[in-house]
Amino acid sequence: MLRFISFGSGSSGNCYFLYTETDGLMIDAGVGVRALKKHCRDFGLSLSRVRHLLITHDHADHIKCVGSLSNEFHLPVYATKIVHDGIDRNYSVARKITADMRHYITPGKTIQLGEFSVTPFSVPHDSSDNVGYEVQAGGVTFCIITDAGCITPEMAPFITRANYLVLEANHDNEMLQQGPYPQHLKVRIASETGHLNNYATGEAIAQNMSEGLRHVFLCHLSEENNHPELARKSVEGVLRNYGIIVGKDLQLDVLKRTLPTGVFDLV
């Protein structure tokens, strides 16, 4: 059985864990190693279960612990060459990835990592480069899209194929526009290389979902410009306008910004 834990989802640090009885795959490394060890113990797990580490992009909240994790647990790190180069330049990554643990991926090219079939795909964001991941294991298709300014035609089929979808719902547009951020930052966040707002996230799900979509997890909520209940209600309202009923047609959860979610069974 495939299981999923979010160890953190937001600007303080992002880290997601998919695992089976014999294999484990981590996506992003923005949560400290000490905290990850504690979280794993709380769930009766060990970080030694992780066999592969995927990185979406080179912003600090997704990579600041990648070198430490890779070095301590001898983890191969998979990212595009541009992202690897960005990790090398990023001052927040105190320990760098060693050459033998560095592996390059290409958007659209599927790779097999143990029990996991992984397909990266390009996602628009104002980082050096950015990808989402489709992960297939045990007959289940899992898709993660975080830090996305918009949904492109390339991304849409991955949403359609997903049984389980992690999708950014970063901000409420009204809160962003009326909030304290300087105008240039508001423009950046709302741009097509910024972050998805709640309404756009609901539209992305509604316009691209299939009958196979069972569960959506809203990720990367802004602390200043969103709220978990607001994100949930906003997305739920958009889906209802399309005749999609949360709790009947699919399940909807909001991932916590700084705490683990608990374990989800992906069946």
Could you characterize the architecture of this molecule?
The structure is a single chain. With 267 residues, the chain is of the alpha/beta class. Helices cover 28% and strands 24% of the residues. It contains nine helices and 14 strands. Helix 8 (198-208) packs parallel to helix 9 (228-241). The mean pLDDT is 97.
Main sheet characteristics: 7 strands, mixed
Order of helices and strands: EEEHEHHEHEEEEEHEHHHEHEE
Are there runs of 5+ residues with pLDDT below 50, and where? Answer: none
Query: What is the assembly state of the chains in this entry?
Result: single chain
Write down the Rg.
Answer: 17 Å
The structure class reads: alpha/beta
Keywords:
267 residues, alpha/beta, seven-stranded mixed sheet
Short overview:
The chain has 267 residues and is of the alpha/beta class. Helices cover 28% and strands 24% of the residues.
Strand and helix map with partners:
Layout: E1 2-8, E2 15-19, E3 24-27, H1 33-42, E4 52-54, H2 60-63, H3 66-73, E5 77-79, H4 81-89, E6 102-104, E7 111-113, E8 116-122, E9 131-137, E10 140-145, H5 156-161, E11 164-168, H6 173-178, H7 183-190, H8 198-208, E12 215-219, H9 228-241, E13 251-254, E14 264-266
Parallel strand pairs: 3-4, 4-5, 5-6, 10-11, 11-12, 12-13
Antiparallel strand pairs: 1-2, 1-14, 2-3, 7-8, 8-9, 9-10
Helix pairs in contact: 8-9
